[in-house]
Design goal:
This protein has about 450 residues and is of the alpha+beta class. It contains 5 helices and 13 strands. It starts with a helix and ends in a 9-residue tail after the last strand.
Amino acid sequence: MIKLVKHITLWVLLCLAATAAMGQDYKEMRAEIKQKQKTARAEIQDLNDQIDQYQERLDLAERKYERLYNQYEDLKRVIALQEKKISKLVEEQNHIKEEIAVISDEIETNEEQLAQLIENYKKTLKYIYKHGRTSQLALIFSSASINQMLVRSYYLEKFEEYRQKQAEQIKEKQAELKLNKSQLEEAQTKNEDILAEIQAEKAEQEEKRAQQEKNVALLQENKEQIQAELKRKQREKEKLDNTLTSYVLEEQRIRKAQEELIQQREAERKRRLAEAAAIQDSARRISEMEKYSTPITIAEEGYISDSRLEEIESSFQSQKGSLSWPVESSTISEHFGRKRHPVYGTITPSLGIEIITDRREEVRVVHPGKVIAIQPFSGYGDVVMVKHGRFITAYGNLSQVLVQKNTILQKGDIIGLAGDENSVRGKSLFFLVRESKTNLDPEKWLSSK
């Protein structure tokens, strides 16, 4: 029995010695990796100093291009607003033309009535000229009776009143004609002023477009050189990052191996102790502990029932062309579809539309749904995505988000505030409509204003 104990003790000591030797090898390997990391970081620091010197020179040039690009974006918004104003001026011009047409018809009618009155008046004057006042007296005194005399006198008096009324009507029609003519001249003057204003607006718009082209041309200067330098910088950074990452991964691998070794040693120690004490009792205690352990539960997320989801999806599809706008404004500075980048000349798709808004204007959801994601995207700022069945609407460039993920929304609920001066795209809202995996033109889904 004593020999068996000595044998087991010797075997344990040999195992521990081998484990210690293995641990020593891992320590040496980790120390070597640490030294490589230190050397790599020193090299990276040297390269970073060189990159910083280049970056200072590049920043000076980029600030100029940044200023010009901001001018281009602002100019694009101004032109969009001007086009909206011109459309309203054209609409007002059409109303003036309709007003002129109505007045012209009235003048033509008055002229016809005046011509008829003048003709009737001529006939009356011709009759009076032929017969005169004496004929009237002769007509009265030639009556066969007093009664006939009174009747003739009555009708002659009515005829005289009719003649005077004709004269008054002619005067009134002439005055009305002069007034209509004055109104027509005033409308024509107003029309000419509006036309002159429209022409001035168009001329100013053309000047701004010309300036826009100049700004874009300036942005495109030395484009190839800047792109080449940026690519070179990116390659250098990528190479350095990969090098350092490989060292970090190697260190993690060594650390993990050490942890596994420690775990193995601890497991071996426990196993030897368990064999020396009571393996069965230890197993029984572990079994009892596992038997009465508490399971972990996961909290339920907010959800919409399948039937309600189908209703929302069907309702969304049926409201194509009549969805409410997410903001009060309907002025679009960037439309859906492919566009050319003003700096690099590349053709990129515009996933949605950009709507010019007031600073931090309230943004409302256009249809009932559920918030499925809230996250920032490069070039679009913070974006809130709302699911409406197989349809999704997205609201970007938000200066403030007022909802949380999994929030159930009703139509018109406020989800956030539109951009301000500090937002990626300025005072505007980015709006997107998507069906499954296909982006749709939001203008075809929103109601016309």
